[in-house]
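Chapter review: from sequence to fold.
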Amino acid sequence: MKKQRKSARQKTKSKAAASGTPAHDRGRREMLRMLRNGAIGIATIGVAGVFSVRAVRATMAEQDLSQVGQGRPSIVQIHDPNCSVCAALQRETRKALKHFDDEALDFFVANIQSDDGARFAAKYGVPHVTLLLFDSQGNLVNTLRGPQERDELRDVFEGFLREHSQGV
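The token string follows.
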């Protein structure tokens, strides 16, 4: 005699009977699991969105070159986003600036790929991979060209602040 195969419905019924869980409870649990996973996914996307918005705002603030000379000493990096040496200089500059109070110095980025950044670099006649140091009135005080190490930058920034800060 030939053995008959169980249908998918019979298998589900036999699993339910073996587990002692009615089929409608399993469906409810599956629905709750899907809702929980969806909620977790939405929360993750929301958190990522908040961080993205903050990063965009920080980038926009860093590129607001109109703030140079508005009462605080400023450092402006002339930056090409496609240049690995520029990226390295920016990393080293940021690490050097961590040793200072946020209120002591302003850091700006003149992206030469943007119209404002290109005009700013042209105004001072400097290429990318350059840091420009401005006093609180916006007067250019020092120009650092090429790659720099964070310790050297920190020393330069300390001397710059001693000479050009107003009670900071």
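Two observations follow directly from the output. The mean pLDDT is 79. The chain has two domains: 8-61, 68-164.
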